[in-house]
Amino acid sequence: MMIMKQHLIFTLSFLLLFFLHCSRILAQAPAQAPAPSGPTNVTKILEKSGQFTIFIRLLKATQVTNQLLGQLNNTNNGMTIFAPTDNAFSSLKSGTLNSLNDEQQVELVQFHIVPMYLSTSQFQTVSNPLRTQAGDSGDGKFPLNITSSGNTVNITTGLTNTSVSGTIYTDGQLAVYQVDQVLQPLQIFAPRPPAPAPAPAKSKKKKAAAVADSPDDNTPTENSKAVSLITMQNVVLFGISAIVITLSL
């Protein structure tokens, strides 16, 4: 009886130790990796920084943010975005954004997006001018040039000269860099040549003088009629005079 009791105690102790050991192993097991969250959301990245509200609003209003979601999910080249801060937009002339039509707003946003991933080290070897999503820079409408010297990355557009002031996000596919000026493309912001002035109209005085100086179209005809009438009168008078003289004889 004593042996059975000892055996039971031993068995229970073994089971208790085994249970505690298994619990410890389960507790130390790594947590399951979260499921992929889908393509990178550019607006969420910018919202986290907290100083790009105007650029975010433009991305949404022009629906470029939807294009980015699709392109980031289906491209192997990646993408680079130069994001202007709110202060950059505030430094524009008042009413600038409101003066742009829908097409120009889309082009302005797309001008800040390069359809390839560029790391900071690649800025030193990039070929200028860069092609942006606004269009081919070869026609001179959307030129974007980048030069690098040490840690300084300079960007020029023909109207804007600024530099990259910080890296907001980079993952090998998407790079988002902060710029402190809005990149202004020539196609939208370059001054247009003035329209040619219309030919000056003749003044009323000059017209009146021209009419007065020009010969009257009816004058020769009227003068001719007057001469014919005088001639006829003379012939009649001559005839009457001849009759009177004849009768007096």
TrEMBL record:
Localization per Swiss-Prot or TrEMBL: Cell membrane
Gene Ontology annotations for the cellular component aspect, listed alphabetically: plasma membrane; side of membrane
Example of a GO biological process term: plant-type secondary cell wall biogenesis
InterPro entries named in the record: FAS1_dom_sf (IPR036378), FAS1_domain (IPR000782), FLA_A (IPR045003)
Annotated segments matching region Disordered: 190-223
Membrane topology annotation: Lipid-anchor; GPI-anchor
Signal peptide: 1-27
Domain of life: Eukaryota
Main location: membrane
Domain FAS1: 39-183
Keywords for the protein's UniProt record, in alphabetical order: Cell membrane, Glycoprotein, GPI-anchor, Lipoprotein, Membrane, Proteoglycan, Signal
Keyword Transcription regulation: no
Family per similarity comment: Belongs to the fasciclin-like AGP family.
Known role: May be a cell surface adhesion protein.
Record-given protein name: Fasciclin-like arabinogalactan protein 12
Species whose genome carries this gene: Durio zibethinus (Durian)
Gene (UniProt): LOC111302018
